[in-house]
From TrEMBL:
The lineage of its organism: Bacteria, Pseudomonadati, Pseudomonadota, Alphaproteobacteria, Rhodobacterales. HAMAP family: 16SrRNA_methyltr_I. Keywords: Cytoplasm, Methyltransferase, rRNA processing, S-adenosyl-L-methionine, Transferase. This is Ribosomal RNA small subunit methyltransferase I. Its EC number is 2.1.1.198. It is found in: Cytoplasm. Belongs to the methyltransferase superfamily. RsmI family. GO terms for molecular function: rRNA (cytosine-2'-O-)-methyltransferase activity. It comes from Halovulum marinum. Catalyzes the 2'-O-methylation of the ribose of cytidine 1402 (C1402) in 16S rRNA. Residues 1-31 are annotated as: Disordered. It holds the Pfam family TP_methylase. InterPro entries: 4pyrrol_Mease (IPR000878), 4pyrrol_Methylase_sf (IPR035996), 4pyrrole_Mease_sub1 (IPR014777), 4pyrrole_Mease_sub2 (IPR014776), rRNA_ssu_MeTfrase_I (IPR008189), RsmI_HTH (IPR053910). It catalyses: cytidine(1402) in 16S rRNA + S-adenosyl-L-methionine = 2'-O-methylcytidine(1402) in 16S rRNA + S-adenosyl-L-homocysteine + H(+). Residues 266-310 form the RsmI HTH domain. The gene is rsmI.
Length: 312
């Protein structure tokens, strides 16, 4: 999982180191140099085995390697037997991005391949690689994704909440007032919400979520995903907030998943008020469609009520 608050620890419980494959390029063909371009390589968020064969092939073959944390990148390559062969792993993070980007982009423009890995997980997800990819695209340089582990998708997979529509909201502000303001803007988003959070702020964040989003909203707190002590705790925001307040900050990385808002049936008075407002500036047909979408009521029912109101 990328981002300043995450300290990935590659798990020691991995399978034996794989033998080098003869088919070790991303296309699984004969060994050959990578085409010039920027390669965004997803890396494990915990267990070292959660890396793809394609990712390992790119790391073996790239002309230049860049990483948010060079130590983590070298350790991962060592675990999987990927030699550096004299290549350096160049640091690329929030503090040196402005200085490092021109060098990496110049290398690509000169016909070299550059592989970038974030701290852990998929690059550009709460990660400084966004500006690197953005500027490469602006210069019409090739950008290729080597997908893989993602804390967002892993959390959605185990949370038990709707996944047909979701919004990744990243890190909320650390101060309660600003956090509640941002949560208010997200309260009516008709989708499952996914957040990254610091363990020491988890209880306070859940309390603010219960107060703003509603204590009855279903949620899941996913901790140490893919690692030895992975834990997923499910419940309502009203139940999870005091539980973590009593227990104190947990250990490890945390992802919070909050279910979509529960649609409550509109009352007859609410429906009439909404229709009256909509019909002031729209045709009866359009007003019925607008109100039906806003309330979740069947369009035929809303249209019939609109006809009654107009007749009255």
């Amino acid at each position: 999982m990328a981002g300043r608050l995450w300290t990935p620890r590659i798990s020691a419980h991995t399978s034996p180191r794989p033998r080098p494959s003869k088919r070790n390029n991303p296309q699984h063909g004969p060994t050959m140099a990578l085409s010039p371009g920027l390669y965004l390589v997803a890396t494990p968020i915990g267990t070292a085995d959660d890396i793809t064969l394609r990712a390992l092939a790119i790391l073996r073959q790239a002309d230049l390697l860049a990483a948010e944390d060079t130590r983590n990148a070298r350790k991962l390559m060592e675990i999987h037997g990927v030699p550096l062969n004299g290549r350096r792993v160049l640091p690329y993070h929030d503090h040196n991005g402005a200085q490092a980007r021109p060098r990496l982009l110049k290398a690509i423009a000169e016909g070299r391949s550059v592989a970038y890995v974030s701290d852990a997980g998929t690059p550009l997800i709460a990660d400084p690689g966004y500006r690197l990819a953005q500027e490469a695209i602006a210069q019409d340089l090739p950008v290729t994704a080597a997908p893989g582990a993602s804390a967002v998708l892993a959390a959605l997979s185990v949370a038990g909440l709707p996944t047909d529509r979701f919004l990744f909201a990243g890190f909320l502000p650390p101060k309660s007032a600003a956090r509640r303001t941002e949560l208010t803007a997200l309260a009516q988003v008709p989708a499952t919400l996914v957040f990254y959070e610091s363990p020491r702020r988890l209880a306070a964040c859940l309390a603010d979520m219960a107060g703003v989003l509603g204590g009855s909203r279903d949620a899941a707190v996913c901790r140490e995903l893919t690692k030895r002590f992975e834990q997923v705790r499910r419940g309502t925001l009203a139940g999870l907030a005091p539980a973590y307040a009593d227990e104190g900050p947990p250990k490890g990385e945390v992802v919070i998943v909050v279910g979509p808002p529960v649609q409550t049936p509109a009352s007859e008075a609410d429906l009439d008020s909404a229709l009256a407002a909509a019909m002031r500036d729209n045709s009866l047909k359009d007003a019925a469609s607008i109100v039906a979408e806003a309330t979740g009521l069947p369009r035929k029912q809303v249209y019939a009520r609109a006809l009654e109101l107009r007749g009255a």
